[in-house]
Design a protein that fits this description.
The chain is α/β, with parallel strands linked by helices. 35% of the residues lie in helices and 24% in strands. Among the domains are: 144 residues, Rossmann fold; 59 residues, Alpha-Beta Plaits. Strands 5-6-7-3-8-9 form a 6-stranded mixed sheet, with helices on both faces. The N and C termini lie far apart (53 Å). The chain binds adenosine-5'-triphosphate. InterPro entries: AAA+_ATPase (IPR003593), ABC_transporter-like_ATP-bd (IPR003439), ABC_transporter-like_CS (IPR017871), P-loop_NTPase (IPR027417). GO terms for molecular function: ATP binding; ATP hydrolysis activity. Belongs to the ABC transporter superfamily.
Length: 315
């Protein structure tokens, strides 16, 4: 695939401004403002029902916003002249005609969008389905359907790609493959937006994150900043003299949590202070150092806040 503009070029930006969608009494998307840039994989994260699918459908012009706007390359998707050549999307892996073969499905899509037939074999090979090209889709596993959906998104060789929960149903090898593919697509300068309701799926997938809850923006920024800002500093400790050390640490007001691997996570004291206390209490230390913040915890903390906020706002 051709290389595109350098990361940071502004032409392929997805821009949502005060984007809102109401279904009857449900506010599915609530004044959402965000920017998705090319050259990095951006994770679109939120619990079930947060409004991710509704937002992606509005980007694609499949749902109309109740108010606000969302544009790709400065224009609503419907106004883009090149359709599938401009934006490729996987929304629902099950949304395919099961009686067709993978090849026939993609060939119909190519024909309907004025794309060269030769792309079909290329994208099937790219997603690892070359050997299954002649098989009927209704015999496909969910993982194979996800690969087929990704192949369809790639068909027009588009600079902007949207994937809704693409890791669902993939085995560990499939997850590793898809992460590599998304990274490569971003390295080529494309804009890649990937939704998920699981933070742990995003940890090794996305560089940037947009987190929503109940239709609202909760946080946006780099994964690294997100992890750093989400929880107070924590220290990892390993000791064969746990009873003495834990008593000493909690006596100083620290919170100590035992981990599955036999280590402890300490909050509320610096590593220096923990070292001093261990020395005083004759507890041997096998490990003492910073414990990387768990993104899962940061995510839970942030979404909890959004629920509280929503409750307060409703009063
Ligand atoms: N066509 C519709 N009619 C009525 N309500 C809808 C419709 N589509 C979505 N909703 C509601 O809007 C809210 C957001 O749904 P949406 O599917 O966008 O969330 P999501 O973040 O993609 O969730 P999930 O991870 O469960 O797919 C939910 O409360 C949902 O019930």
């Amino acid at each position: 695939m051709p290389r595109r503009g350098p990361p940071g070029s502004v032409d392929l930006v997805i821009e949502a401004t005060e984007l809102t969608r109401r279904y009857g009494r449900t506010l599915a998307v609530d004044r959402l403002t965000f920017t998705v840039r090319p050259g990095v994989v951006t994770g679109f994260l939120g619990p079930n029902g947060a409004g991710k699918t509704t937002t992606l459908r509005m980007v694609l012009g499949l749902n109309r916003p109740t108010s606000g706007t969302v544009t790709v390359d400065g224009r609503p998707f419907a106004g883009l002249p090149r359709g599938l050549r401009h934006v490729g999307a996987l929304l629902d892996a099950h949304d395919v005609h099961g009686g067709r073969t993978a090849r026939a499905h993609l060939a119909a899509l190519a024909a309907g969008n004025g794309l060269p037939r030769g792309r079909v074999a290329e994208v099937l090979a790219e997603v690892g389905l070359a050997d299954a090209a002649g098989r009927r889709i209704d015999g496909f596993s969910l993982g194979m359907k996800q690969r087929l959906g990704i192949a369809a998104a790639l068909l027009g060789d588009p600079p902007v790609l949207l994937f809704d929960e693409p890791l669902n149903g993939l085995d560990p090898e499939g997850v590793r493959w898809v992460r590599g593919l998304f990274g490569r697509l971003a390295d080529e300068g494309r804009t890649v937006l990937v939704s998920s309701h699981l933070m742990r799926e995003m940890e090794q997938t996305a560089e940037e994150l947009i987190v929503i809850g109940r239709g609202r923006l909760i946080a946006a920024g780099s994964l690294r900043d997100f992890a750093a800002g989400g929880t107070p500093p924590r220290v990892a400790v390993r000791t064969p003299d746990a009873d003495a050390l834990v008593a000493a640490l909690t006596g100083e007001g620290a919170t100590v949590r035992a981990e599955d691997d036999g280590s402890y996570t300490v909050t509320g004291l610096t590593a220096d202070r923990i070292g001093d206390l261990a020395f005083t209490h004759r507890a041997r230390l096998y490990e003492l150092g910073p414990r990387a913040a768990s993104l899962e915890e940061a995510f839970m903390a942030l979404t909890e806040d959004s629920v509280e906020y929503a409750t307060e706002a409703a009063r």
